[in-house]
Amino acid sequence: MTTRESAPGSAGGADVPGPLHGGPDDDYTPEQLATMSREELDLLGARYDSVQVLHVDPGPEPGSPVERRAVRQVGLTFGLSGLAAFAAFVIYVGSGWFLPDWQWTITEGGWSAFFTPLIGGLGGLSLILVGVGMVLFTKKLLPHETAVQDKHDGSHFDRVTTGATLVGGLHNTGLARRKLITRSLVFMGSGVGLMLLMPLGGLIRNPNTGDPLGTTSWAEGVRLVRDDGSPIRPGDQQPGSLETVFPAVPGGNRESDAATMLIRLRPEQVAIDRPRNGQDDFGYGDYVAYSKICTHAGCPVSLYEQETSRILCPCHQSQFDVTQGAKPVFGPATRPLPQLPITVDDEGYFVARSDYIEAVGPTYWNRERI
């Protein structure tokens, strides 16, 4: 139809000469449109929108075996999608509650090794099944219509008739009578919605629960061991030497916050040693142990000058005096290195008496509150 042809009008359906678009609100009042049925509005809107239907393949006959089989397939797909989504949500929420606790550790087996792949795999499977279900629903249950339409500016007439078209499309889906698909859609939507909300768990949970930034693997009775796992006795080090030690726990030598410097002081250093208040008994004989993590920016401090009794951080040149409780004496660091209380066990090996009594590493905004 061209702009020189006539368009349907309001006077008993008579044609009104003029352009196709821009005047349907003058032809039909809101009262007239309100009296029309959905089918009439759908047809009228299509005629005014210059929609030309080229071909229509109707959907399956209601109640036919073909329809029932398609409904079962779509409902099963949506149901499995919801089941996979709920399973991912249960794994995420249940870890550490009624399921084993997940830990950020590098393992070849166990719950921690399968936690993330399970969530990712189930989440991906759920979304894939959503797509498969939508494709099956569209191909097997909806009528297929091929049409062409010109684009034009909208009006009240367009809004009313378009609304009727959308309602007609919903009616054609048959969701009102296909209860299995409706229920499976609700189930799937609930599961997928919860699954998509899971990443917010890290924002909702209190990150300070259990004081993760203020605690390490050191605890009462935990041995001090070298990187190769061998324990240390008093006398294994020469006076004035430093050795990096780790807690004798699984993976302890990979925990960066637990790295500790075990220092054996020289006699002249012992004579002038001034521990921090309340930490006079943290050392053992001429041995002291301090955190290896710089309190400025978290770099590893390990350059020890026994002549000056200073530990140097190579990143920003902070210096700590081991004879003054590892107090910073130069550079940007403002807090002393935390001291680990140590003693020896019944076999004569060095062990920790407790964890560090303060958080190791650099300052963070709520450090003093946890």
Tell me what the structure shows.
This protein has 370 residues and is of the alpha+beta class. The chain has nine helices and 14 strands. The radius of gyration is 37 Å and the shape is elongated. Mean pLDDT is 82; it is low at 1-22.
Q: Which characteristics define this entry?
A:
4-stranded antiparallel β-sheet, alpha+beta, 9 helices, disordered N terminus
List the helices and strands and how they pair.
Blueprint: E1 7-8, E2 15-16, H1 24-27, H2 30-35, H3 38-48, E3 52-57, H4 65-94, H5 111-141, E4 144-148, H6 156-173, H7 179-197, H8 201-204, E5 224-225, E6 242-247, E7 260-264, H9 267-272, E8 287-291, E9 303-305, E10 310-312, E11 319-321, E12 327-330, E13 342-344, E14 350-352
Antiparallel strand pairs: 1-2, 3-4, 5-6, 6-7, 7-8, 9-10, 10-11, 11-12, 13-14
Helix pairs in contact: 3-6, 4-5, 4-7
